[in-house]
Every structure is written in C-alpha cells, then in structure tokens.
Design brief:
With 371 residues, the protein is of the alpha+beta class. The chain contains 8 helices and 25 strands. The mean pLDDT is 97.
C-alpha cells in the first residue's frame, strides 16, 4: 500500500501530520524529530503542523523526497488509536461538472423536451462553480439535513430538504500556488497537484433546483462536502492514467492536450449495500484542463485549494454517481436488500464512498433540528 498523508491526534496530544500505511499510522512529526525525514526541508516544523499545507507548499521535489523516505518507515500507531482530522486547511473550493454521462442525464431530467441534453457551452469548457471552503469536512462527520427554500405545494416553502443527495467525485488537492495574474498552462497544471481524495458533494436537490436559475448552486450545495481523511499523493496514482474520451469539438488552444484520466474503480454503498459501481475514467474534462480554465483569467492557485471533479457517472444505470440519476429525480425508486426503497436519503442513512488507492468517505444523515 502506498502511503497516504493526513492529520491525526490522540487523546491529550496535539494534532500533527501522519502517513497511513497498511498496518497503521506513521507519526511523521516524531520521525522528523528522530532525523528520519532529513530530505524534507524544515521537516520538524512542517510535520508538526495541524494541516498538510506547510508540507504541500514545499513543492514537488520535497514531496518526492519525503515519499521515498516515508516508504521506508514502519507504522508505530494502530489506526484505531488515532483520530483522523481534516487533512488540509482548505483555501478555496471549486466544484466542476466534468462527466458527460452525468451532465447528459441531468439535462434529460431537467429539460426533458430538449433535443440536446448538454448546455451549449459544455463541450467547450469545464463548467464549474465556486463552493464554500468552510463546510468541507473529513470522512465520518455526520451530515445534518439542511434547510432552505424550495418550490412546494403551489409556491415557495422553507424547511428541511426533501431531496438530500450525494455526489461521487474525485477531489484534487493543490499543493503549490501560482502567481496572481498569470494563467497556469495545461501542460504545467499537474505540477501544482499534491494528491487526490474521494469527495462527496452532498446536495439538496429541491433547494438546488429552485435557486439555480439564473446564478447556479448556492444553499443546495454549501452545507457539507466530505473528503477522505488521507490524501493519496499524485505520484502514487499517475501510473493509473489512461486515454480518456475523444473531445469533440477539439478544445480551444489553452485547453488542448491529450485527455488522460484516472482508471480507478469507484463505488457507493448505502446502509451497507453497494448501489453504484463506476470508474473515474468516465470523466470527460481532465484535472489539467480544469486548472487551465480555472486560472485562464489570472485567478491564482493556493496551497490547500480543493477541486472537485463533479459527479462521476458511466453509461449504465448502476454507474450513475448520484441519487438524482439513480432515481431519475424520484420518478424511479430503487430497492435496497432489506426491502426498503429510496429516491433520496432518509435520516439515519449511512453513505460510504470507496475507490482504488483512495481512502473511504463515510457520512451518516442526521435529522434537521427544525423538523
């Protein structure tokens, strides 16, 4: 198992950086004090921090050197004895919409009479929106059913969402910043990516649908985004990149590159039953293209930026990465092994996202205090 980086604490002890190995956790702060991470500049300081941001800001040369040394260390702490925390101090959070199958399904659901399910700009640029960094939480954090405004029986209503959903995504963690005013070229974009996490962009579909026109997602997306507690270094996953779908029409020059995507099996379970099996290779727009577009206007990257891929869906029903698609916005309920049915999530439901080479993302739905 390749190391994954995170932040942990034990009772009565400060938070610090660790590495998850197959048999437990390496205390990297202790290893640095013992001189075992000498290839990482200022190792004691960066690994004693309560986030990965200081380590990420050192850049790729330090990441590679650290990874080689961490691979030679032994796990000293059983995973059961540590509390994993949010691994990064999230600077900005941007969520994209980069799976063609998901975008087409959403178009068919919300615009059933349209001849073309994709919006006119979808094949020309990676569509995205700026999310709320302050509500990104680590795996295991309960998710309280959010309240908001939606279209009810004949008019607007306010209350707990009736259409709580999940989105199966990859999250790309930015390590090194870029200069404000200078776009990052598509060929240079990966140099800024520290690693990958699984990401669950919890969504209140009824709130989202009512508020989205004309300016896009707001309260329906800003209440919780769960990520894996352990970040997989990009270096450990680049070998899983394969050619993606041919992009037609060809992107404009600033986005033009061979589309390479991650061949990683992904799944979603609901109350212990697997309801989705798909693959990250179903993304149309790549992380390099997302970064090139995000910075095309001169916006800068910062250490700790989190970029969500958008829901990852494949062509088959069981490959749909959210309940909006699985239940066709409630019109087609699906059955669980216990005989119950779902369109959207109920209070007490537990959702777990899993992926090859990545740490799981787990969350339980709690009832709204306003019911």
């Amino acid at each position: 198992m390749n190391p994954r980086y995170g932040v942990f604490r034990r009772e009565g002890e400060p938070a610090r950086v660790g590495a998850l190995l197959e048999d437990g956790v390496v205390d990297l702060a202790a290893a640095a004090r013992a001189g075992k991470l000498a290839e990482v500049p200022d190792a004691e300081r960066v690994f004693s921090a309560a986030s990965l941001n200081p380590f990420m800001a050192l850049g790729r040369e330090a990441w590679s050197a650290g990874l080689e040394q961490v691979r030679d260390l032994d796990a000293s702490l059983p995973l059961a004895e540590v509390e994993p925390l949010l691994p990064i101090e999230v600077a900005d959070y941007v969520d994209f919409y980069s799976s063609r199958h998901h975008a087409e399904n959403a178009g068919r659901i919300f615009r059933p009479g349209a001849e073309e399910p994709l919006s006119p700009n979808w094949r020309s640029l990676p569509v995205g929106y700026h999310g709320r960094a302050g509500t990104v939480v680590p795996s295991g954090t309960p998710v309280v059913r959010p309240c908001g405004q939606f279209w009810g029986e004949g008019g607007p209503e306010h209350g707990p969402t009736r259409a709580l959903d999940i989105e199966l995504e990859l999250g790309f963690v930015i390590g090194t910043p870029s200069r404000h005013g200078e776009p990052v070229g598509v060929g240079e974009a990966l140099e800024h990516v520290f690693g990958l996490v699984l990401l669950n962009d919890w969504s209140a579909r009824d709130i989202q649908i009512w508020e989205t026109v004309p300016l896009g997602p707001f309260l329906g997306k800003s209440f919780a985004t769960s990520i894996g507690a352990w970040v997989a270094p990009l270096e450990t996953l680049v070998g899983r990149r394969v050619p993606g779908e041919r992009q037609e029409p060809p992107p404009l020059e600033y986005l033009r590159a061979e589309p390479l995507v991650f061949d990683l099996e992904l799944e979603v379970s609901l109350n212990g039953a697997t309801i989705v099996r798909t693959n990250a290779r179903h993304l149309y727009w790549t992380v390099e293209q997302q970064i090139a577009h995000l910075t095309a206007n001169g916006a800068s990257l910062r250490a700790g930026d989190l970029l969500g891929s958008g829901t990852i869906s494949g062509p088959e029903r069981e490959q749909r990465g959210c309940l909006l698609e699985l239940s066709w916005n409630g019109a087609e309920p699906f059955e669980l092994p216990d005989g119950s049915t779902r369109t959207y999530l109920e209070d007490g439901d537990e959702v777990v996202l899993r992926g090859e080479g990545l740490s799981e993302v787990r969350g339980v739905v709690q009832s709204s205090p306003n019911t």
